[in-house]
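Structure tokens please, single chain.
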Amino acid sequence: MNYLITVLFLIIWIVSIFGYGLLVPAFLKHLKIQFNFEQPYSSTIIGLSGFIFIYFLSSIINFFLPLNKYVALIILIFGIIILILNRKKVVLLFKKDDIVLIISLLIFTCFIPFRWLQYYDTGLYHLQAIKWFSSVKLPIGLANLISRIGFNSSWFTINAIVEQPVLLLKVPFFISNAICIFYYGINIVFSFRELIKKNIKLSNVFCALTIIPWLLNAISSSSSSSAPDSPVIFFTFIIIILIISLFEKIEKNSHLFIFISIFSFFAITLKISSIILVLSIPVILFMNFFSKNRNFINRNEIIAGFLFSLFLIPWIITGIFISGYLIFPINFSRINSLNWAVPGKIARDLQENIEIWAKAPGTNSPIIFTNYHWFKDWITRFTIFNKIVVILIIFCLILQVFYLIKKNINKYSLNDKTAYRLPLIISIIGVVFWFLNAPNMRFGSGYVFSLLLLLIGYNIYSINLINNLHIFFFKIKNNRKYNLIKKIILTAGIILLFLAFIFLFFKKLEHPLLYFIAFIKNKEINASWIIKLKLIFYIFLILGIIITFISFLLLKKKNMFLNSTIALIFIILLNLVITESYFFYFKEFMGYPTANKFTEVPIKIERNVYNHFVYVSIDSDQLWDSPLFSTTEFNKNLRIVNGKSNSRIKFWIEE
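Here you go.
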């Protein structure tokens, strides 16, 4: 039942958040700015904007009230009402032929919350932050109890509203990241549609390539947790796409500056490491006033961009409330006059621990990072744990060499090279910033993938590869031997798919079969053949999908409904490939006894010198669903003010 309730709330919140996003065109209309509903990325812009509206609303409410189930329900209902009132605009965003594609994407999304792998940071502090925001009005000095809550991610405020089923049902099925993945997935689907229709633009090529990190995130443990990692990546991608689109056809896309501004500022509230994205704003404004295309952005659009960015004010105030810092844990932003400001030593130690963990995990002793002796071990770990990135680097180099040595190919050129150069420079600066501070892929995936996919996408665009593929398939279709080729390819694909599903059937019986054999023979069974079976399953299913899809591309007659239906089949098959492990999380006897509940953490009661009590986890830095006033950083000098039910809770440390 919990699974069905989670899926229901996932779908309802997708609708509600989209409703809040539809307020953006309404607001722009009052400023006499025309929102372009025809662009393929418009639906993603609206969906992601909905998160910003909910954050702004929730953060203000949390100053006065807890973000409990009643507040969440009111916000949910209002979003649905807004969507119903603006349903005509939704028709402009989605055509009838898109319905099957959106449904297929929704089916894929519904699997995401159940891929629960007990994400470490959710147990460390994410869930505790969400519980605090949903249980009481914004506490003062909360970072003195749990220092990492001082990072002040807006995603936890959003989660306090959207993740009420998690708090009420006590199940670890988080849906916020899945919703974000869904909205960005629409962008990818539509970009492929544009490329198939020969609308070959760098923005479409880049967006289509982001399907790689999109899938990686969809199957990662962070996507089924409350971590802000996924939304940071997708906001980074959409900002890059908007910058490219702005300069691809500058006279029709000037309104995109508004969304570049608000998404860049909002990305900072998710993770401070996104601050590099804001650099694009002054560059665009400088070009607006001093370039050849002077004043391609009008005054109303500049005003709108900064008006929408006012959500930074409640974010900064929230940070001051929680930690006493403008930006925690940066020491110079500490407001010394506030007695609840987290002590400087705690902030410095936390910042140092993050750097050590990113550059030399497992090291307890201080390291001098300026001499780069750590780099050798870091690059070894990076290549081992980020094989996809390594493959992309190699592919990028191969494409670049091909582009340089192939003189006789018909190369495309952008009308304005800024469409490529500006996002490339932003990505390079982001990668350098990431590498110097905390070079773990969790903190820099958006920058790293943007850089690589921009280089790959620009080469693909420049050598006209997409158009050449269209020509190639056209030639095959006009070949006399086409029918025979089509039948052979289609037959091979169907056979491979059939064999793959036989393997899938046996794979689902894997554990019961092993247990049964072990019970009969009364000894442990070597399960190495299971690994080989799994590898065969993956190879057969992927080959079957690719071959069958190629045969579909070779069809002479096409219609959009047929295209969408076949796309639905392929997305479901792809879902089976990459989420095949989901099936095991529904069976407690299959080795995942905590799949549908939080880890239970043993805690004890400690009292400080002022006789205030707190709960402290025993021999662990995990808290999970522990009661409020829990911590892993017990300090006897911690003071607590917890008066009447309507008073604000306050924490501070006497130095």
